[in-house]
Amino acid sequence: MKFRSVKNESPPVAFREALFRGIAPDGGLYVPETIPALPQPLLNRIGEHTLQSAGELILSGFIDDIPAGDLRSIVDRTLNFPIPLVNLQDGLFLLELFHGPTLSFKDVGARFMANACSHFLSAESRELTVLVATSGDTGSAVAHGFHDIPRITVYILYPSGRISPLQERHMTTLGGNIRAVEVKGTFDDCQLLVKQTLADPDVRAARALTTANSMNVGRLLPQIIYHVWGVAQLLRDTHLAGSHPSVVVPSGNLGNLTAAAYAKRMGAPIGRLLAATNENDIVPQYLKTGVFSPRTPKQTPSTAMDVGNPSNLARLQSLYRDDPDRLRQEIEAISISDEDTLREIRSTHKDTGHLLDPHTAVGVAAARHLMRRDGSSSPIIIAATAHPGKFPETVGGAIGATIPLPTTLAVSQARTRRSTPIFPAYNEWKKLLLGGTASA
Ligand SMILES: *Cc1c(COP(=O)(O)O)cnc(C)c1O
After folding, report:
1. Terminus-to-terminus CA distance in the chain, angstroms?
2. Which of 392, 404, 390 is nearest to 140 (CA)?
3. Which residues are marked as active site?
4. Cross-strand partners of 182
5. Pocket test for ligand 1, best of 29, 103, 105 (most atoms within 8 A of CB)
6. 47 or 335, higher pLDDT
7. What is the pLDDT of residue 439?
8. Cβ neighbours for 121, distance < 8 A, ≥ 6 positions apart
9. Which residue has the higher pLDDT, 270 or 164?
10. Residue 360: which H helix or E strand, with range?
11. Which of 55, 194, 246, 396 has its CA 20 to 30 A from that of 131?
12. Please, what is the Cα angle at 13 between 30 and 327, to 5 degrees?
């Protein structure tokens, strides 16, 4: 299987090259040339599979330049935590993606990408620089996924003052091969710096570079696994066999939603796909009007979804042949207000005892909207993207109680913080990167 650029102006490449390039030379995102069908035995006999064995089967349809045994061990090391489907209320199910080391779904993509890079680099004895722009959760997942992996240095660019203190600690305290850069601007400034770097021939000549953003196919592909796993669990464990559950994905850069769209295209019995956004409603507006107007995002309680120019939209457009009408037939989008997000955290806690993080709350509110609107009780799976304990201020504020810090996060509280502040000016950043100075 080859990967082509959505812009179609550079040659298709093998998985290894798509992984190491991050984005294609023409500036486009890589997408699989075709979407393979799920092996039927996987769906019919899901009960005979583990998350890992299902994962290996799914990925082997896309990745043919890693030997089967090695792919299996990469998947095993990546998915060494459970991804349970939990019944929230009648018809509403949470696919809990947050049981990895940094308690967000991004652990899946980051760990797979780190293990896949490590697989290729160990055979080639090469060095690699990994760049990542983050609005919070990506940085911690990538930092932990890549920490202490030999031959790799990671630069994490995050917007100053716009991520939670807990998230900041999580990515600035590991040290070693992980360098944190505090950009005095927005997430989109960070993302632009990464894109500019990847397109800069000077830097490319000096460093082997890639990005660990959701632009990288190495993060995107493993996320398909749990969307298939989620519907498979639902159909296996409930009386709902034969139904096509809808899938709601709390969305920012649309990477997770794109993975769900791939799962559906592969043949997973998924009904509707719904992108739930916060007040940054660029995607709902685009689907409504057909006009894409990226803009500076505003800050909301679901900070990891404060994105004004969602990078994976290009992949979705490509999947639906750049036809907004086809896209609309399969994907809906709903924007949830800050007020409704906090109200959802409060009412779900009151009614079910369940704590939702602010991102998942956007998804649950959107799912309820869908149910009310359609007057239907057909099942809906909501991707639960983060652990509520990651956002103690917002969740605690909403329910009027103190949220205990999960133990995995408490550890980084004690360590020293290290990061280098810069203005969002490309030259300043380039000097820092090429100077290679360790963070101060
Ligand atoms: C990153 C993130 C999202 C958004 O995911 P995308 O793939 O960028 O759409 C949602 N929730 C949480 C908790 C996140 O960290």
Report:
1. 43
2. 390
3. 106
4. 158, 421
5. 105
6. 335
7. 44
8. 127, 128, 150, 151, 152
9. 270
10. helix 358-374
11. 55
12. 30
Ligand 1 atom with least separation from CA of 258: 7
Distance of CA 286 to the CA centre of its chain: 21
**Mean pLDDT of all residues belonging to the chain:** 92
Cα separation, 31 vs 244, in Å, equals 26
- Spatial separation of the C-alpha atoms in residues 330 and 257, rounded to whole Å: 12
Query: Quick one: how far is CA 354 from the chain centroid?
Result: 23
Predicted pLDDT at 413: 67
CA 307 to ligand 1: nearest atom: 8
Query: In this structure, which amino acid lies at residue 245?
Result: P
Q: What is the pLDDT of residues 73-128, one digit of tens each?
A: 999 999 999 999 999 998 999 999 999 999 999 999 999 999 999 999 988 888 99
At residue 274's C-alpha, the angle toward residues 377 and 4, to 5°, is: 145
The rounded Å distance from CA 424 to ligand 1 centre is 23
386 Cβ inside 6 Å of ligand 1 = yes
Place of tokens 């989620």: 230
Report in angstroms the alpha-carbon separations of 408 from 134, 165, 388, 392, 437: 20, 15, 13, 14, 30
Looking up tokens 């304990």 gives 389
Structure tokens at 110: 């980051």
Nearest Cα residue to 315 out of 408, 223, 242: 223
Q: Residue 201: pLDDT above 70?
A: yes
State if residue 278 touches ligand 1 by the CB under 6 angstroms criterion.
no
Q: Which amino acid is at 41?
A: P
For residue 230, report the distance from its CA to the centre of ligand 1, in Å. 17
Q: Residues for the chain: how many in total?
A: 440
Residue nearest to atom 2 of ligand 1 (CA): 304
Structure tokens at 1: 């299987």
Quickly state the pLDDT bin for 438 (edges 50, 70, 90).
very low
Tell me, what's the pLDDT at 164? 79
pLDDT in tens, 242-255: 789 999 999 999 99
Q: What is the pLDDT of residue 436?
A: 59
DSSP 8-class letter at 269: -
